[in-house]
Design a protein that fits this description.
Blueprint lengths: L4 H8 L3 H12 L3 H14 L2 H11 L7
Amino acid sequence: MFQTEPIIYLQSLGNEWFTFLMILITMMGSSSFLIAITIITTFGVDFKKVLFCTSYCSGQAWLL
């Protein structure tokens, strides 16, 4: 059966910073966050290295 004790415990800790932290963690799963991280990684590191890594990891390294 479903247990509500962990949820009730987290709700009892509810204050401004904890709620903000939980909202940030929830937002990490959104597609806009993942796209932003991908763009920052692509242009922040080295475009050729990232291109090779993504192609290699997806099994398309033969295209390079």
